[in-house]
């Protein structure tokens, strides 16, 4: 089953161009039409006043990315909450806010219970973004989008994450379309960007040898810091989670602007700092945050796309990701952080596919 790969995680990382193409195919066929999310969606989506996303772990980080898209492309307020927190608080509910759950397995207990709780508070419509057909969460939801990642076996979620991002991006554009905010021309442009996405992801996968060389250095460290801003902050979070989960290296992620509000105190020459720094509108801000790290002796490992114009210098290592792909850039930048975690774990000899203390599907509290 593993073919040329050593682990399911590695296989699943490399399956991403195909998983993405398969998922994108559904979007290309329907062209951002409400039916993508099920027969009830056409009546429902135009009446919405907001979106509330509930999920756990990596799926939660997909939700955090979606917030940027949903607010900027669709102009709809969006909040994202960890399912295990939401289910136990006295939450305020607006029935006109669509509940969106994100779950690879469709069986995560906390997400399922959060969905039931939302319903009990008066939310009438829920959309499930899920990778497993007919699992519990989509069965309990009015609207469904199935990602087409194929079975994900490694405990660390990889291809499920990037296909969730595509589903959420499609939701943002579709919401924008039904609200008259996204023109035909913009839709055509977004479809084109989706069409090119698997190619850019393949490009990122081809960076594996360079990333492995970095990972070998990380393997000797006890801690790591991940920084990103805007759309790439959730990718920093995802990179830190992947590294913790499978290599057991302590890792934290921050939006780079937060450094001076606390975490900068941790930075010294023993602290590798990974920066997700593509050429977006926040790049200059990220560059000045990087100087703050360098000034404290921190070693920087920067993922910068071809348009970011970074050069290597002492203590600053750069890997060039593909050409900037606009708002879909988080999908491309998920790849290098997955590969970094995978190779750091390999170098440390941990059980990559079955990390200690963790289960693939968390069906208990
Ligand atoms: O199946 P789900 O997407 O609901 O799972 C949620 C989390 O348990 C999951 O993403 C977890 O964080 C992964 N092991 C991360 O790699």
From TrEMBL:
<keyword id="KW-0963">Cytoplasm</keyword>
<feature type="domain" description="SIS">
    <location>
        <begin position="214"/>
        <end position="355"/>
    </location>
</feature>
<dbReference type="GO" id="GO:0005829">
    <property type="term" value="C:cytosol"/>
</dbReference>
<dbReference type="GO" id="GO:0006002">
    <property type="term" value="P:fructose 6-phosphate metabolic process"/>
</dbReference>
<comment type="function">
    <text>Catalyzes the first step in hexosamine metabolism, converting fructose-6P into glucosamine-6P using glutamine as a nitrogen source.</text>
</comment>
<dbReference type="GO" id="GO:0006047">
    <property type="term" value="P:UDP-N-acetylglucosamine metabolic process"/>
</dbReference>
<keyword id="KW-0032">Aminotransferase</keyword>
<dbReference type="GO" id="GO:0004360">
    <property type="term" value="F:glutamine-fructose-6-phosphate transaminase (isomerizing) activity"/>
</dbReference>
<dbReference type="GO" id="GO:0046349">
    <property type="term" value="P:amino sugar biosynthetic process"/>
</dbReference>
<feature type="domain" description="SIS">
    <location>
        <begin position="40"/>
        <end position="181"/>
    </location>
</feature>
<dbReference type="GO" id="GO:0097367">
    <property type="term" value="F:carbohydrate derivative binding"/>
</dbReference>
<comment type="subunit">
    <text>Homodimer.</text>
</comment>
<protein>
    <recommendedName>
        <fullName>Glutamine--fructose-6-phosphate aminotransferase [isomerizing]</fullName>
        <ecNumber>2.6.1.16</ecNumber>
    </recommendedName>
</protein>
<keyword id="KW-0677">Repeat</keyword>
<dbReference type="GO" id="GO:0006487">
    <property type="term" value="P:protein N-linked glycosylation"/>
</dbReference>
<keyword id="KW-0808">Transferase</keyword>
<dbReference type="GO" id="GO:0005975">
    <property type="term" value="P:carbohydrate metabolic process"/>
</dbReference>
<keyword id="KW-0315">Glutamine amidotransferase</keyword>
<feature type="active site" description="For Fru-6P isomerization activity">
    <location>
        <position position="360"/>
    </location>
</feature>
């Amino acid at each position: 089953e593993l073919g040329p790969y050593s682990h399911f995680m590695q296989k699943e990382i490399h399956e991403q161009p195909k998983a993405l193409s398969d998922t994108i195919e559904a979007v290309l066929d329907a062209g951002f039409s409400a039916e993508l999310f099920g027969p009830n969606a056409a009546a429902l989506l135009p009446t919405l006043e907001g979106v509330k996303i509930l999920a756990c772990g990596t799926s939660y980080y997909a939700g955090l990315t979606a917030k940027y898209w949903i607010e900027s492309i669709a102009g709809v307020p969006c909040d994202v909450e960890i399912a295990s927190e939401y289910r136990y608080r006295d939450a305020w509910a607006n029935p006109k806010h669509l509940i969106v759950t994100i779950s690879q397995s469709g069986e995560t207990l906390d997400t399922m219970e959060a969905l039931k709780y939302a319903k009990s508070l008066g939310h009438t419509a829920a959309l499930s973004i899920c990778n497993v057909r007919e699992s519990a969460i989509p069965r309990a939801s009015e609207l469904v989008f199935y990602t087409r990642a194929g079975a994900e076996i490694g405990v660390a979620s990889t291809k499920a994450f990037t296909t969730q991002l595509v589903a959420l991006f499609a939701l943002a554009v579709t919401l924008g379309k039904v609200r008259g905010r996204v023109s035909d021309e913009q839709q055509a442009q977004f479809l084109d960007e989706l069409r090119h996405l698997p190619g850019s992801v393949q490009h990122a996968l081809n960076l594996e040898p360079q990333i492995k060389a970095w990972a070998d250095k990380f393997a000797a460290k006890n801690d790591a810091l991940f920084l990103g801003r805007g759309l790439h902050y959730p990718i920093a979070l995802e990179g830190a989670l992947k590294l913790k989960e499978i290599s057991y290296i302590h890792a934290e992620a921050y939006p780079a602007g937060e450094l001076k509000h606390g975490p900068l105190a941790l930075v010294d020459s023993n602290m590798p700092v990974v920066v997700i720094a593509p050429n977006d509108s926040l790049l200059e801000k990220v560059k000045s945050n990087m100087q703050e790290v360098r000034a404290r002796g921190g070693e920087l490992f920067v993922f910068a796309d071809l348009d970011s114009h970074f050069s290597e210098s002492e203590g600053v290592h750069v890997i060039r990701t593909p050409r900037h792909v606009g708002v879909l850039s988080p999908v491309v930048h998920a790849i290098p952080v997955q590969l970094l975690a995978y190779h750091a774990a390999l170098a440390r000899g941990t059980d990559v596919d079955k990390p200690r203390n963790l289960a693939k599907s968390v069906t208990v509290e």
